[in-house]
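Quick start: what a row looks like.
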Amino acid sequence: MKTKSYEIDMCNGPLTGKLLKFAVPLMLSGILQLLFNAADIVVVGRFAGHQALAAVGSTGSLINLLVNVFIGLSIGTNVLVANYMGARQEKAVSETVHTSILLSLLCGTFLIFFGIVLAKPLLTLMGTPDDVLSQATLYMRIYFVGMPATMLYNFGAAVLRATGDTQRPLYFLFAAGIINVVLNLVFVICFDMGVAGVATATVISQCVSALLVLRCLLHETGCFKLYLNRLHIHKDKLIQMIRIGLPAGMQGAIFSISNVLIQSSINSFGSVAMAGSTASSNLEGFVYTSMNAFYQACLSFTSQNLGADKKERINKILITCEALVFTVGLVLGNLAFFFGDKLLQIYSSDPEVIRYGLMRMQVICTVYFLCGLMDVLVGSMRGLNYSIIPMIVSLAGACGLRILWIFTVFQWHRSLFVLYLSYPVTWLVTAVAHLICFLIIRKKLDERKHYELGN
């Protein structure tokens, strides 16, 4: 198999440098993706008022709920391609790539109709205030028109990440991000399109990033080169992708369900509290996506080493990723809170919006590293082809406990501080549960290898 300059040898040599080489472009890619939404939020907050800001922000958890199941399937793509790359099974890599790209287009097309039809009923069910509902519905409906492009980019980037290539997706998102920012300003300031303008700009920028990743795969020369006339659903690869990716997607949806409930609770405090939470949440996203790069690194490196039968490196990969994600989460989270007052002013000049935003950041940003530690453990288990166990743990620890918190502790003391406290509490409990599960899985793998050697 010919090695490309963009690829990383994940199965040999020191880990820290290679993990950083993989993760840093991925961090920057995630930050650029967030800038799509940040540009939306900043522009509407500055030029269309706090109601438009609340409208855009109130859709985030609901969009994630509808999309995460399908995005999870791209994790199945990442794991499968990495496994087959590590095992040097080129035909299987190619079949997985072609199955994934066709699947992404089918999922995206389905989501167009799903999102457009359900936008208003679901936003109403969440208790979105009447002064925000119509704008939030419009934003969601336009946003979902771009779902085929969103899915295509995510699945295509998953293929590239499995080979260690996190640089080219960064370049693609940079180009799309520039287009998004420029179009936001043009549509909102020049044409006074409000939330419709920022949604349209986002859809166009997503199409640009999707076309660039598609062009990249079409011009590859290795086993993950894409041929349009070979697009086909290979049943065995689809089943494996679903087995790995669907639980991952369900886990994402489970988190989103609890976040939808929290958003509904935030909505009860009015549009100003919603706007403050939206701005804070967007800033938190920059910390989260930086930590999430190490989840992706742990997933890809573990998958390739499992495929190459180098299980002795898996513990080292996990420990190194946990150390890196702890450092990044601790530093960036606390820096975000320390400069929170200045950062929130980017989104809104309203003192009350800033006050509500700082309240959230105080609880969440200062201990955000707990979320990173939890996610890296999940990445390791998924890389080992165990996806159902993390889903069940998250169902009980993150979703179940968070919902229980909302209906008990929050009801006893209805304040935003108590509501936000549900996040760090559930991260800690779930991380401990994931660690116990990982140790059990590693013991099973070691026992299986010992048994195979004995025979």
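That is the whole record. The chain has a mean pLDDT of 85. Residues 402 and 408 are 10 Å apart (CA to CA).
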